[in-house]
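Quarterly update from the structural biology core.
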Amino acid sequence: MKKIAKFEKVSLVQFKKDWIDTFGETSSENIEDIYNSINLPKRATKGSAGYDFYAPIDIDMLPSTSIKVPTGIRAKIEENWMLSCYPRSGLGFKFRLQLDNTVGIIDSDYYNSSNEGHIMIKMTNDSRNNKSVHVDKGAGFAQGIFIEYGITVDDDVTELRDGGFGSTNK
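Predicted structure, tokenized:
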């Protein structure tokens, strides 16, 4: 098995900035407590392909609502690899929980972005049976799978990334 990446936390300063940008002002102590309780993603079993991302707070979603979750996590990934993010299978199956961008793609150069490569996961409860979703703090809510990729023989891109969602088009 190839070992091609390492999960880390973003800095507390970056986490606070992104948390406030997402949820508004909260006490600094509360944000620091949330940050300190964040666990790095892990596989549940030896045969698991996905690394579980854990909810930093209780998440409650009514049908047809969305939430953006600052995970506090970044991934240092070797070149020619990416991290694909998905909802946990059970949440997708039971509630139609989906990522708003369908599949989150974390490129290897995202790690060096000005936001420290902070992985944000935006999800929507697309329940058609009027089911609300509840995820306990510390429970897995998303999963990431590392995937190797190739490029074309005539690829000559030299541009560098600096940012998250949509930053490659700026």
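The radius of gyration is 16 Å.
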